[in-house]
């Protein structure tokens, strides 16, 4: 196969994959009493070359997610983003905050007051308000980033004091589960927290976005209340590191 035709093959795959995913999202949305357009599909573009990201954008993708500051910044000049927004979804070190604030539309991976403080400080310097989601480690896994569920409320009260951050909701990556029931348990626990926090009407804290669900489990996530799903390999194929 020539280089050219293998790119075209992959373009077709991306198109096909997006159609399948959109159908499944629509079905899960309707099943959970919502409209298909109430669910936001993010294409997760870590390790994906700009040419394929641009094709996904041509196919109607209007939100991409990157994990690493450096990777996003190095690919950015090759992306034809247009109206497509970009979110940071991977763990963010405080010393990288300066480079990313103002470059992405949202940081989904805020998991400490310390990080929030730095985002606030750099946002003030750049004269922007940075939209954020607070990441919850819903499985309480040692190895994972994200805030412990029992610290969420207190942390949100502290972040609510920061003038240059706007919290828009919550994000999670659940543990790898042995059963669908276990997985649904984590998703529904997240949904309850999302609703409970929303009802507290904390100043400057909105619960508009519940970001959960990836390639293997986005339908379950939507059925349990997700309104933003982050899908990588089901769009672009397996990641080659
Ligand atoms: C990689 C990644 C995804 C997408 O994973 P897939 O299984 O490829 O869909 C979603 N969210 C986060 C935080 C990720 O790091």
Description:
The protein is an alpha/beta fold and 241 residues long. 43% of the residues lie in helices and 20% in strands. The chain has helices at 3-31, 50-58, 69-76, 97-100, 113-126, 152-159, 180-200, 218-223, 233-236; strands at 40-44, 63-66, 85-88, 106-110, 130-137, 147-148, 165-172, 205-211, 228-231. Strands 1, 2, 3, 4, 5, 6, 7, 8 and 9 form a 9-stranded parallel β-sheet that branches. Helix 2 (50-58) links the parallel strand 1 and strand 2. The radius of gyration is 18 Å and the shape is globular. The two termini are 22 Å apart. Bound molecules: pyridoxal-5'-phosphate (PLP). Pyridoxal-5'-phosphate (PLP) is lined by residues 44, 46, 67, 89-90, 173, 214-216, 230-234. Pyridoxal-5'-phosphate binds next to strand 9 and helix 9.
Using brief descriptors, characterize the structure shown.
single chain; 241 residues; alpha/beta; nine-stranded parallel beta sheet; 9 strands
């Amino acid at each position: 196969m020539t280089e050219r035709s293998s790119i075209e093959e992959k373009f077709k795959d991306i198109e096909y994959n997006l159609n399948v995913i959109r159908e499944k999202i629509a079905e899960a949305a309707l099943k959970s009493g919502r409209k298909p357009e109430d669910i936001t599909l993010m294409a997760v573009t870590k390790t994906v070359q700009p040419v394929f990201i641009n094709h996904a954008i041509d196919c109607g993708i209007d939100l991409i997610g990157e994990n690493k500051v450096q990777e996003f910044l190095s690919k950015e000049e090759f992306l034809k983003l247009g109206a497509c927004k970009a979110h940071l979804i991977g763990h963010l070190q405080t010393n990288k905050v300066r480079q990313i604030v103002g470059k992405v539309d949202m940081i989904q991976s805020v998991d400490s007051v310390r990080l929030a403080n730095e985002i606030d400080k750099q946002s003030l310097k750049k004269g922007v308000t940075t939209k954020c989601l607070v990441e919850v480690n819903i499985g309480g896994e040692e190895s994972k980033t994200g805030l412990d569920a029992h610290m969420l409320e207190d942390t949100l009260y502290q972040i609510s004091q920061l003038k240059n951050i706007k919290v828009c909701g919550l994000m999670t990556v659940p543990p790898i589960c042995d059963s669908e029931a276990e997985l649904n348990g984590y998703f529904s626990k997240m949904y309850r927290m999302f609703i409970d926090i929303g009802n507290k009407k904390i100043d400057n804290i909105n619960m508009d976005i519940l970001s959960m669900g990836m390639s293997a489990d986005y339908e379950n996530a939507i059925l349990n209340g997700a309104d933003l799903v982050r899908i990588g390999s089901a769009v672009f194929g397996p990641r080659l590191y």
